[in-house]
């Protein structure tokens, strides 16, 4: 496989924890505070789940009033520190900061795994990433159920609650456990996805569908999952988690072969030795 397909996406002008004059260590602190603010909203909401207003976007794809409240809490903290930065959130979409021309953009999923959350399944997360000129430079994936905070700054490694992370070392697909996200039932590409699922399932040691892509990618970074693929999500689901995998020594790639792994949000992730085998199965379909 050409080396350009497995992305370690270098960032222009990145020097000593900063980029374009921004202190990335300070920005990570803001991202953590923001993620914790979102987690607090979700924790409070768990005690009244039966009364939470839920909206169905399409069968199998829902949102709640808590998604919006979590996102508002997250962006409120970010705006306090960086009012000029642009923002992209699952609930609010794109919004510009004060200048409207900032190279910085915060990418937020305030509740990844809403269906799990509503059903009381403790597998959901808050995801916060900062991209500069379209490239992620820091990411946080927060798991409020387990109180695990996965963090990464480009070039500085990945961590969970301060402990260094490293991807699993398995190199054979028949020994690997692979995570995935099953699209909503009415998604137009469902038949194509199922063909991909079967192609991988026939070769892997096991498949896992847990219901929160950001957390799945954090688990790849932590070596809990060996690989992961998805074809149906958005940038806010993947940006922070993809950086976690890269900074934990792994690799991510666009399934179609584009050099930008988030080009179409059709993403595969694993360690650098396993990823080619995973991509081979995905591309065979």
Q: What is the number of strand segments?
A: 18
Strand order of the largest sheet: 7-6-8-9-10-11-12-13
Rg from Cα: 18 Å
Tell me, briefly, the overall form: globular
Structural class: alpha+beta
- The helical percent reads 25-40%
List the topology elements.
Blueprint: E1 14-15, E2 18-19, E3 22-23, H1 24-45, E4 54-58, E5 61-64, H2 65-81, E6 86-89, E7 93-95, E8 104-112, H3 114-118, E9 125-132, E10 135-143, E11 148-153, E12 158-160, E13 163-164, E14 177-180, H4 190-201, E15 206-208, H5 213-221, E16 227-230, H6 235-247, E17 250-254, E18 267-271, H7 275-283
Parallel strand pairs: 6-8, 14-15, 14-16
Antiparallel strand pairs: 1-2, 2-3, 4-5, 6-7, 8-9, 9-10, 10-11, 11-12, 12-13, 16-18, 17-18
Helix pairs in contact: 1-2, 4-7, 5-6
Molecular structure report:
There is one protein chain. The protein has 285 residues and is of the alpha+beta class. It has seven helices and 18 strands. The chain has helices at residues 24-45, 65-81, 114-118, 190-201, 213-221, 235-247, 275-283, and strands spanning 14-15, 18-19, 22-23, 54-58, 61-64, 86-89, 93-95, 104-112, 125-132, 135-143, 148-153, 158-160, 163-164, 177-180, 206-208, 227-230, 250-254, 267-271. It has an eight-stranded mixed sheet, sandwiched between helices. It has a five-stranded mixed sheet with strand order 15-14-16-18-17, sandwiched between helices. Strands 1-2-3 form a three-stranded antiparallel sheet. Strand 10 and strand 11 form a beta hairpin. Helix 4 packs across helix 7. The longest helix has 22 residues, at 24-45. The radius of gyration is 18 Å and the shape is globular.
